[in-house]
Amino acid sequence: MSHPDAATAVPTVLVVGEALVDVVRADDGTTTDHPGGSAANVAVALARLGRPVRFATCFADDRLGRLLADHLARDAVGLAAEPGAVVDHTSSAVVTLAPDGSATYEFDLDWRLGPVEAGPGTVAVHACSLGAVLEPGAADVLALVRALAPQVLVSYDVNVRAVVTGTGADVVARVEALAALSDVVKASDEDLAHLYPDRDVTAGARHVLGLGPAVVVLTRGADGATWVAADGETSVAVPRVVVADTIGAGDTFCAAVVDALWSRGAVGPGAREAVLALDHSARADVLTRAAAAAAVTVSRPGADPPYAAELAGGPTSRPAAPGRGPDPIG
């Protein structure tokens, strides 16, 4: 899908999906509002890594919506759709933190997608989580990705939220439809266990790979991450850090994968071929950078991904917040 101004437009990532506010209940009883949502977290993380970002989402002009708008503007995340045109209240999630930093969620969601202006400079599109499977917006996400796929890198984070969507045949079908259009699919061991309870996670990843993507990136929390491709697997360990909470870890991981692939020229037309051409060393480097970025996020409260300068100093370049445990990338 070319555009006459594409040659002079600023290369940009289009992120599409939900934005919401996490109302976080800590184990000491305190409550804090954190703007987020899986797609919003990816958009902010990409912007902090230095990539121009446009975000297609929805939220209302209410208290929580203004928190989101300020949050996105702070890191210069542009909007590719009018967020308040299709919903009358901003979505939220009550997040309850356990003493080990792990999180459980209760959602109040309304996910819809208005008209999207991708822009002539779009070189990558990322979809994820609820936005990819929750109707009525999911059908619009699929149509948008299908239209853009021939000319951009398509990345997709499965990020199953079973408490909201369930894990039945309809959800599996929507996940697989988007995976089939993608170049890079990221799925955690928990995602694959939800979707394919009759398969082990490696078999689940191989099944998703057979749908069409160039790679499935399988994350196993503290046990590392694996690049699953037709010609073999590449695995890396993850940094051990003091955990504040796990909110946004997987989202940061995805953003850093897109960022690292962009650095290797694997965006725009020919992105799929460029991803397939990466050798074992390059694949390990992509995963290692993504794990380092996610380690920063889990070291501090809320979805607070690193800036590019922080990664230059390693995942503990900024003091970690109180917590305990290994880095559980989702």
From TrEMBL:
Protein origin, superkingdom: Bacteria
Name the UniProt record assigns to this protein: Carbohydrate kinase
InterPro entries attached to this UniProt entry: Carboh/pur_kinase_PfkB_CS, PfkB_Carbo_kinase, PfkB_dom, Ribo/fructo_kinase, Ribokinase-like
Protein family (similarity comment): Belongs to the carbohydrate kinase PfkB family.
Presence of the UniProt keyword DNA-binding in the record: no
SUPFAM superfamilies membership: Ribokinase-like (SSF53613)
Gene3D superfamilies registered for this protein in UniProt: 3.40.1190.20
Species of provenance: Nocardioides lentus
GO molecular function, one term: kinase activity
Entry keyword set: ATP-binding, Kinase, Nucleotide-binding, Transferase
Alphabetical list of PROSITE patterns matching this protein: PFKB_KINASES_2
Pfam families: PfkB (PF00294)
Record region (Disordered): 300-330
Carbohydrate kinase PfkB domain ranges (all copies): 13-305
